[in-house]
Amino acid sequence: FGSKWRSKVNNGDKCSSPPPSGDEIMGSDEDEDGYPPAKAHNFTSSFQDGMAFCAMIAAHAPELIDMEVVKEMEPIARHELAFRVAEEKFGVHQLLDPIDTVNSPD
User: Fold this and answer.
1) How far apart are alpha carbons 103 and 93 in whole angstroms?
2) Which tens digit of pLDDT belongs to each residue from 6-39?
């Protein structure tokens, strides 16, 4: 994940590789689970609707996020779900505010 790379940088750890691209994070164009692939071309607008955050979690732990349900959610609710699951299940602390991310992804 890009956040792991960013965490290493913010903590002063040496990181020999550059951050992954959006395509590397989201995987291939394959539709392996019956869901359309979530495209992430950059770390700003591609994450604005919350789908990419949820898709990253679902790609690694599909039992935690139902993408069929996520598709029907509002963007802020998607962010809240992804951030809550990331913190509760993976110990990734929430650094972004969903409202700020939806309104201004920079």
Assistant:
1) 21
2) 444 444 444 444 544 544 444 444 455 555 566 6
